[in-house]
């Protein structure tokens, strides 16, 4: 299951005094609640709390349906029966996948997600960049100014030194 770093000593001692196994008291996340014989995971959807027994979650996890996947399904609006249905879970066959291939796919997806995140963040910070043309042709006045000596022009000579024209 989940190893959560937000567990406190007080919570672990309360769990053990309620009859929990010491391993489960340390291993399970804060969302697991109840007495030792009836441990339940509490999913929150808005103000509604959905309780699922630990034994049922353990069976579903063996089929490939994790707590995270169930929580995602519930957040998307699925009913508890639909969320706990393990028929649509497809477990990958480890013989078909190479570790290097899996790592490459994960890196590519994380890079793509990072690029999407950066673009979205840029649009929130500077929304005018999407509507205003970013590359302009030089107008007549700009050409006029560059042809006159109003701007210093820097050029490299044969020896790589900067020369002001």
Low-confidence regions? none
The share of residues in helices is 40-55%
Please give the largest β-sheet. Answer: 3 strands, antiparallel
Order of strands across the widest beta sheet? 1-2-3
**DSSP strand count:** 5
- How do the SSEs run, as a string of H and E? HHEEEHHHHHHEE
Helix count, DSSP H or I runs of 4 or more residues: 8
Q: What is the quaternary state of this protein?
A: single chain
Structural class: alpha+beta
- Report the principal-axis shape: elongated
Count up the domains: 2
Summed over residues and divided by their number, the pLDDT gives a mean of 80
Measured distance between first and last alpha carbons: 72 Å
Range of strand content: 5-15%
Integer-rounded radius of gyration: 30 Å
Describe this structure in words.
- 47% of the residues lie in helices and 12% in strands.
- The chain has eight helices and five strands.
- The strands form two sheets. Strands 1-2-3 form a three-stranded antiparallel beta sheet.
- Strand 1 (32-33) and strand 2 (40-45) form a beta hairpin.
- The longest helix has 27 residues, at 99-125.
């Amino acid at each position: 299951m989940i190893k959560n770093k937000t567990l406190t000593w007080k919570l672990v001692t309360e769990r053990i005094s309620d009859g929990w196994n010491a391993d489960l008291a340390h291993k399970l996340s804060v969302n697991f609640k109840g007495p030792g014989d009836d441990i339940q995971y509490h999913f929150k959807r808005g103000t509604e709390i959905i309780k699922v027994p630990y034994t049922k979650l353990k069976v579903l996890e063996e089929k490939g349906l994790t707590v995270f996947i169930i929580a995602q399904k519930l957040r998307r609006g699925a009913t508890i029966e639909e969320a706990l249905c393990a028929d649509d879970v497809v477990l990958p066959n480890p013989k078909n996948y190479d570790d290097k291939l899996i790592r490459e796919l994960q890196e590519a997806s994380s890079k793509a997600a990072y690029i999407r995140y950066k673009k979205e963040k840029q649009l929130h910070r500077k929304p005018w960049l999407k509507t205003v043309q970013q590359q302009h042709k030089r107008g007549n006045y700009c050409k006029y100014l560059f042809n006159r000596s109003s701007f210093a022009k820097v050029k490299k000579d044969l020896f790589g030194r900067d020369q002001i024209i």
